[in-house]
Predict the 3D structure of the following.
Amino acid sequence: MKRLLAYLFIVLGLGMLCCNISFAAKINPYKVGDIVENQLTLGKKYKVPLPPGKFEVVVTNLKQGFHDIMLFQADKNGATRWQIQIWVSKKAQYWWNPPKFCKRKDLYFNKSKLGNRKYHCWIINHTRSELSTGKGFWGKVRDWIIAERIIQPDIYVYSNHEYQTSDKRLIGMGYFYNPEVDGVPAPKNIDWETAEYHMSRVHKYPEHEAFLKKFISVSATLVKRFNELNNVKGGLSLNPNQYITQSSINTETPENKVTNDSSEDIISKLKSLKDLLDAGAITQEEFEKAKKKILN
């Protein structure tokens, strides 16, 4: 009888262990080498929006109760456009304290809602691309950058966006962007406090300041999509709509970017079509149909 009970205990214990492992795996279903687009889905119910284009999963890590994922997108010349860090808590059983960045005052932009237990933080900052750590998630990222000979800027502009769900899950997103792929001059000062993007200095550098204003709008669209995908409402939504403008950064990927040559070809075709109309070679109705076809 004792042997039977011991056997049952071992079987049940292994069953519970398997279930826990299976559940943990479902939080992060992505593996290195996966190509993702539009959004990530974590734990089947939490959704993280992505900027336009395709991203490669280049690093994953599970440590200290968090799943970390790094996504990468390059421009047509192979330089980094986006590096995106996603972090999500393994368990949904704690009320989390807001991170220090939620309360920082030395940032170009900070829009945070620190409520009773729940919070939602959104900041925009700049950072050096140099990684000194050789451990954990960022150590893996550094090893990948070195191994793949990734072309990086000295300074990234990024947004951090962290939210505690109603069921005590913690989700965070860091969207790191390379302004140089948009033609913004590389900063001459690469220390954080003296960089052209610093809030106390950026007014001296119109191109860098214009980029930061555009980046706020792009970041706001991602916060808005996060709210919609995860049903975040009220004050915790951070009201991103008020920061969205028509300005945008160069988020087009090589395969969907319209080139100047294409634009000039369209103009040439429309001009030729108008000449045919003026010469009476085609009717107004035929002109409108042909024009619609060219523009589409």
User: Anything to note?
Assistant: The CA atoms of residues 79 and 150 lie 7 Å apart. Residues 19-243 form one domain. DSSP finds five helices and eight strands in the chain. The helical segments are 2-27, 136-148, 206-230, 260-278, 284-295.
